[in-house]
Amino acid sequence: MTTSNKNEIIGFELWAEKNQNIMNAAAFLTLLIMCIGIIGNGLTIIALVKSPRIRNVASAFIISLGAADLLFCVVVLPFSVSRFLNFNWAQNPILCSIVPFLQYVNVGVSLLFISMITINRYIMIVHTSLYSRIYRPIWIASMIAFCLTLALGMQIPTLLGIWGEYKHDPKLGTCSITVDRWGRSSKTALFIIGFIIPCIVIVCCYTGIFWVIRKSENRMQKHQISTRSDPNTKSMQAIKRKRNEWRLTKMVLAIFLSFVICYLPITIIKTTDPDVLHPVLHLIAYVMLYISACFNPIIYVIMNKQYRKAYKSILQFGCCKTATKRMPVLRTISKRLHPHGRTQEEGCKTIVSQVSIALETMDNNNRNMSSLI
Question: C-alpha angle with apex 243: 238 to 246, nearest 5 degrees?
């Protein structure tokens, strides 16, 4: 093996050693993403559970998506931070299997949950009559269980070393899926099953949604022109309901697009640069991949008014709860300052009157003693 080929194989690790300042910056960004993701996804889960107004079928999948991103921030990102800071945990075979396993499972389950939310929007808008029959609690739970089982099941053969294996890749400087002793790898199959197929399903669903909405708008405009009258209360309510559904649908589309934008760079760079000749591009792609774990709560806040209200109510509830804990202390102080519920002024008047009565009593007693003498 020549020196140039050896440098190509361990290019990322050599580059990282020579550019530790850039690696430190990447570690700081990853740590920031981790903190935002933990707070944002945790707040999303609490808000959806506590707020009945936004608790619907889609919210069950959004809670599951938030839980997956929260787990990614808590379990996977700390190892990414330590990797950028040159802590060599990748040499530990157990960690080198568990960390990439969880990372790949998270990618798969996130896109599957986004697919389920998109299918939910499609059936709600395109096949409204089927909606109540399909989305019952037992079926919703089954769909969530299916996503988790499929995402985990696709990674189990690699975890067991049957179809590829998780090992330290010296070219990437991290643990990833590598070929097993038979020269096989599950990367291509996982990419097709876990990424390409869900993306095709999502694109087909949104094509159908846009087509139906366009037809519905045209039909409504023609009806208003033909009748030349203002819409009645029922039609206004239907329009408002459709707008709310469309607002949520656009939000889900934004989640999908942000997911693709965040994951596309790492897919492209790993395909076009397998020998890691451009380490800085790999580093940028990894940081973009991590951003996807904290981006969804930002989309919820920007695009959905009801979600903003839910977040606000949770934050206000937390503040009120803190204030409530302080109330007993304040009441105790108030009672001491203002006995029997009186104000400070009334309390002072009471004390003055009691002193005056006591002085008058003493004067009367002195007079009686004088008369006796």
Answer: 125
> Using alpha carbons only, what angle is made at residue 38 by residues 121 and 255, rounded to the nearest 5 degrees?
25
* pLDDT for the residue numbered 26: 93
Q: What are phi and psi of 231, to 5 degrees?
A: -65, 145
CA pair distance 290, 76, nearest whole angstrom: 10
CA–CA separation, 91 vs 168, rounded Å?
7
Thinking of the domain 3-303, which architecture would CATH place it in? Up-down Bundle (1.20)
Residue 332, SS3 per DSSP: helix
pLDDT number for residue 215: 81
Residue 290 vs residues 34, 122, 281: alpha-carbon distances, Å: 8, 29, 14
Which ranges of the chain have pLDDT less than 50? Answer: 1-9, 341, 343-345, 347-352, 355, 359, 366, 368-373
**Are 50 and 314 spatial neighbours (Cβ–Cβ below 8 Å)?**
yes
Distance CA 300, CA 315 (A): 16
Domain residue ranges in the chain: 3-303, 326-365
CA-based R_g, the chain, Å:
32
Which among 257, 254, 296, 290 is positioned nearest to 44, based on CA atoms? 296
Strand-pairing partners, residue 169, are 174
With 0-12 CB in 10 A as exposed, 13-18 as middle and 19+ as buried, what is 140?
middle
Q: List beta partners, residue 175.
A: 168
* Structure-token pair, residue 323: 């204030």
Report which secondary-structure segment, H or E, holds 184. none
| SS3 of residue 179 by DSSP | coil
Tell me the whole-structure pTM to 2 decimals. Answer: 0.77
Does an H or E element contain 90, and which?
none
Angle subtended by helix axes 57-71 and 20-50, to nearest 10: 150
pLDDT tens column, 5-64:
444 445 677 788 888 899 999 999 999 999 999 999 999 999 999 888 888 888 999 999
Could you tell me which of 201, 172, 202 has the C-alpha nearest to residue 10? 172
Helices (H) and strands (E) in the chain, counts: 14, 2
Instruction: Name which of 123, 121, 112 is nearest 65 in CA terms.
Output: 112
